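Much of what follows relies on a compact textual record of a protein's fold. Here is one such record, which you should read through line by line:
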Amino acid sequence: LMLPYLYWFIEAYAQICLLLVLLFRPAGMRRWLADSLFGTGLFLLVCGVILRLTLPELWPLPAGRSQFSVPWVFYLFALGWCVTAAQSRSQRLVVLAAAALILPLAAWLGGNWYGSWTKYLSLLGLVGLLLFVQTVPMPRLAVRGVMRLAQAAFPIYLLHRLVPEILLPAALPDLPPALFDLLAILGGIGLGVMAGGVLTRLSRVLTRLHWTRLRPAHRQAG
């Protein structure tokens, strides 16, 4: 029954992108963005924290729905923006300090229970890794597999729950719980990797068709 709600973050992300398009539609805002990508990110982070602290309280949604809304998660988007835009060591330290304040607060506001603290402190550790770990050494033989898995991360996210929610119950309804969990994890990853491969090939075909159509126009112009 929760399957439609599993994609709430896609909906929120689309809404955030629309808000950013509207925000940076004026030429002056685009110039500010071009001049200070990091400063823009900090501004968005402050706005996101204010939204998280105020709007769910002032404009509450039905029970159990607020955490699926843009005001609840916009600060995470802005924090990711700051991580990407931080170039100098001082900027990285500013972002890490901001994350060290904001994420524990989010854990406390998110229910103040061990699951909430585990989730947000894991995010804090991830922010630190993204800011300060530039490369990850690994055996050459593992690179291709890791890159393919990374390339398929989004399809895995979109499709992995179809395995335990739909495919496994229909095909193998009486599996032991441990085996069910193992097959659900491996099957979700496998389904996402296959979908990622299909998307990659489709993208190559569309790119090839695009350039094939452009070549006659280039020859005619020449």
